Amino acid sequence: MIRSFSERTFKRICNQLAQKDVHLAGVLETYGHPPMWTRSNSFESLVHIILEQQVSLASALAALKKLQEHTGHISPESILKLNDEALRACYVSRQKAGYIRGLAEAITNGTIDLAGMHRLPDVVIREKLTALKGIGNWTVDVYLMFVLQRADIFPVGDLAAVNALKRLKSLDKDTPKETLLAVAATWAPHRTIATMILWHHYLSEKIV
User: Fold this and answer.
1) CA distances from 152 to 24, 107, 145 (A)
2) What are phi and psi of 150, to 5 degrees?
3) Closest CA to 89 of 109, 67, 68
4) Residue 154 CB-density burial (10 A; 0-12 exposed, 13-18 middle, 19+ buried)
5) Which of these, 36, 40, 102, 143, is most buried using a 10 Å CB contact count?
6) How far, in Å, CA of 3 to CA of 122, rounded?
7) Largest distance between two CA atoms of the chain
8) CA–CA distance, 181 with 163 (Å, rounded to integer)
9) φ and ψ of 196, to 5 deg
10) Which domains can be identified in the chain, with CATH numbers?
11) Strand, coil or helix: what is 154?
């Protein structure tokens, strides 16, 4: 079953979560509803997510803007025309250049069909994308959450979400992954929206 959310249902789901979880309710009472973060279902969006791997959001955005300026339009075809030197000039590391080229090739040869992703269940999308070098579960989580608005994702590899969860629930910094997943399971089938509330908490309180 494919579970998704929309602008029409987002705030209602936030309120439902607040009724189940006093800590999430506290975030909404203090800071209001979180933004419903979204991105288009495009090659550029996936490139942006890859650029965000293990760096600051500001650094990733700077690289994305450089690529936009250099190509005029970020597409598989425009990326495959760039050599290593051109990509380095756009602040793209050698490693990520390989990942982005691999994605571009997968799209141009038909291995990945972004337009058809919305029809596939989460597990199939994860299998298809993680088969590509450099695309792991965190990248897929963000794609599912931001691009396809899948409702029940908890990105356990996301430091901001995890640190906000630990802070909100007064958990030890060494709390194991299994415990975090168990806490997040109480928000099913709306773990994505709960995560957006966590991010809202993180950004509002500038949690380290």
Assistant:
1) 16, 26, 8
2) -75, 135
3) 67
4) buried
5) 143
6) 9
7) 53
8) 13
9) -65, -35
10) 7-37+153-205 (1.10.1670.40), 43-147 (1.10.340.30)
11) coil
Nearest to 196, CA basis, from 2, 17, 45:
17
CA distance 90 to 110: 27
* Tens digits of pLDDT across the chain (208 residues): 899 999 999 999 999 999 999 999 999 999 999 999 999 999 999 999 999 999 999 999 999 999 999 999 999 999 999 999 999 999 999 999 999 999 999 999 999 999 999 999 999 999 999 999 999 999 999 999 999 999 999 999 999 999 999 999 999 999 999 999 999 999 999 999 999 999 999 999 875 5
The β-bridge partners of 4 are 150
Classify residue 164 as exposed, middle or buried by CB count within 10 Å of its CB (0-12, 13-18, 19+). buried
Long-range pairs, 14-21, Cβ under 8 A, ≥24: 14/193, 14/197, 16/190, 17/187, 17/190, 17/193, 17/194, 17/197, 20/186, 20/187, 21/186, 21/187, 21/194
On the CB side of 38, CA atoms within 13 Å amount to 12
The amino acid occupying position 43 is F
Is 207 exposed, middle or buried, given 0-12, 13-18 or 19+ CB atoms closer than 10 A?
middle
For tokens 């079953």, the residue is: 1
Indicate the pTM of the whole model. Answer: 0.94
